[in-house]
Amino acid sequence: MSDLCLPLGLEQGDIAQLEQIVTTSSVKHAGDVIVRQGAEFTRIFAVKSGMCKSTRVDLAGNEHVQNFHLPGELFGLHAIYAGKYGFSVEALNTVVLCELKYDELQKLSSELPSLQRQLLNLLSRDLYHSQVNALDHFDQSAEQKLAGFIHNLYSRFVARGYEASSFHLPMSRKDIASHLELAPETISRLLKKFQQKQVIQIDNRLVEIKDLPALEQLVHCHALEASVDVQNIGKLA
Amino acid sequence: MSDLCLPLGLEQGDIAQLEQIVTTSSVKHAGDVIVRQGAEFTRIFAVKSGMCKSTRVDLAGNEHVQNFHLPGELFGLHAIYAGKYGFSVEALNTVVLCELKYDELQKLSSELPSLQRQLLNLLSRDLYHSQVNALDHFDQSAEQKLAGFIHNLYSRFVARGYEASSFHLPMSRKDIASHLELAPETISRLLKKFQQKQVIQIDNRLVEIKDLPALEQLVHCHALEASVDVQNIGKLA
DNA sequence: CGAGAGCTTGAGAATTCTCAAAGTACGTGG
DNA sequence: CCACGTACTTTGAGAATTCTCAAGCTCTCG
Lengths: 237, 237
What we know:
10 helices, about 45% helix, alpha+beta
């Protein structure tokens, strides 16, 4: 449990101190707002189970889905600097959370060097992901983005030890579209296309990955497309 | 100078310690590589003068310009977690840099609470920018992106105390295009369009902002376009 | 002054979006 | 337990932005 909630890699005694001092748990249900954009920053959160989405209303008034938070993942670190949250966070299904008060966490970290190092590592990891992964998916086609999204979810489930060849998407097509900056219609069309290529099976919000190598090909290599299309002409016609 | 190189907001004595222990300076020239993608992480850098660009070769082998680094800005913090740099950094013109060895910085920060806090703040600030600003510019049109880019450069120059109503762009159109994920031809066409609208004056790589409110309108509001177009039909015909 | 990189301009092509309508799932109340 | 309403999803057709390719121009630097 401490592994889920605080993947901090601390020494045993330090973990105990951390949990006793700064951690509380809470349960949220689909649609519950956990954090409101612009609210004062007091806590960081860790997802123990369930899934959340972070959304932001931009300067032009449009809402964007920034990310989805899976079990074992943290959110809120971006708000340390500004002192307020840059996103709203909402539960997509039933979610169990850890909450850590940042002021207590910071105080404790000045006493525990391993905690301090770990905090810097966590921030840096988020920074790395947000700067590097963003670029890796930047100029991709809609097809590559969606394939990358499904594969990314798969990888994150696997990394947490879940058997993830099939999983539930608790978010709407519109949420996925907003996250990838595509139109919901495009998501629909591409999911169907992937299914026709036998790469995935999609039944409402349940995804099953039928051909992982093909999915990985879709992410990186546009060239696959033609050959798969040829293979499937017979089946579709 | 310490203000430029280390905008850390530390107490006086702490600044002195930091500078003496971990800081060295170096000068680079246009085209010099400062950091190579994938190289072992040892240092973070601060730009004292000049401009750099961070680039990354993605998994598909395409190079992207991640960001440009202006005087007073840091780079390298993303690499703490992975232990290696995710980007190559190259000087765009003559650049003076501060270099800080991270292991020494970390050691010092466990002795200086204000430095520790400041490190967390800096990481969080980068994270905030990379997560929030990325979203704010995500689904914008090419026009909004480019206007936003010019306005962002302007703001960063102003924040550092420069008189920035006109400034030099040391990067190529191709670099700008790559940074905004547009084609270089699109950059050319839009710069010309902005000039025709009398929003900026562009002469090769020198930009002059002629109408700041109009530029800000371009960033946020697509509606302006029509009216400006109408105003300029006479002039263009 | 010449060579090469960088920039501009044009025309046609392609991806993705928008709008509209029909179909489907889910939760609530009868 | 079924019926209904609402929200979500799918599908289609046409429209729009941005890209690609190609050619000519220009600036810089040796």
